[in-house]
Amino acid sequence: MKNEPRPKSHDSSGGTIAAFQRRGEVIKPAELIEVRGGDKITLTARRIYNQLLANAFGPDMAVAGREFRIPFADLRGNHTSNDRVTEAILSLMQTLVRIRMSDGSTRNVHLLGPTDVERFGPGIATMLTYELHPKLLPILRDSQIFARLEMQILHGFGTKYGMALYEMIAKRIGLKHVFYHDFDTEELRDYLGVPHGKLGPFAALRRKAIEPAVAEVNTLAPFSCNAEVAETQGRKVTKVRLTWWIKSAEERRTQWEARRGQQGDLFDSDLNEEILTALPGLEPCS
């Protein structure tokens, strides 16, 4: 991976954990967005990890040994069983990912530390107690760059590729005078979480991963994007250019109305009015 500087899309002088996390959003350090080796992490696991970060957010999330608690009901979504949640938690504990640190070095780490499951009586598990992995604490403590992710948008994705692309753009959307980024094709494949050995030809990668991800982002996010070939060597596509732009107020309102009809069980009309007014994640950056 090239030692390119990190984009300062959301720079907080007090660090990421000093930022204000608005209702219904997740503040996610940039280092935890574009990771490699996470191809086995499912859509459900990605969504749950964001919920765990949001639940833990604050100064204490960078304290060694700090435990956090969250009801299983908050993680199940529309499902009545805990099976998917349990599988996702184990996946986050077991999968080793490669994270690029702010100084350009690479850290190999599991995304989640120890967990405990509380049961009240013989019935279904009711409470998850968890720790963030200790090797993540320097990132959580020192990261200066982050993305603001809307929880309702995260719940709307049907593919992990779309969710990954949404996070990648959300990390950059506040950049002034920067509206595109060229990704090495193999890096983009890793960042999207394409399984190892799958979608080898670029045509398959574009048809099965990139195009569906772009379509989902354009449907769900407060911004739009496009992906096109930026560089080739012979017949091999070596770089893909990702471009993005903020939707107009009218486009966002139309989208908001559509989401309210499609996600009624998750929809908080007051919250979405706040989103239309405040546009979290789209504020200008210094």
Automatic annotation (TrEMBL):
Biased composition (Basic and acidic residues): 1-11
All residue ranges annotated as the Initiator Rep protein WH1 domain in the record: 26-169
Pfam families, sorted: Rep3_C, Rep3_N
Coiled coil stretches, renumbered: none
Region Disordered, annotated ranges: 1-20
Taxonomic superkingdom: Bacteria
InterPro entries per the UniProt record, alphabetical: Initiator_Rep_WH1 (IPR000525), WH-like_DNA-bd_sf (IPR036388), WH_DNA-bd_sf (IPR036390)
Family membership noted in the UniProt record: Belongs to the initiator RepB protein family.
Record's protein name: Replication initiation protein
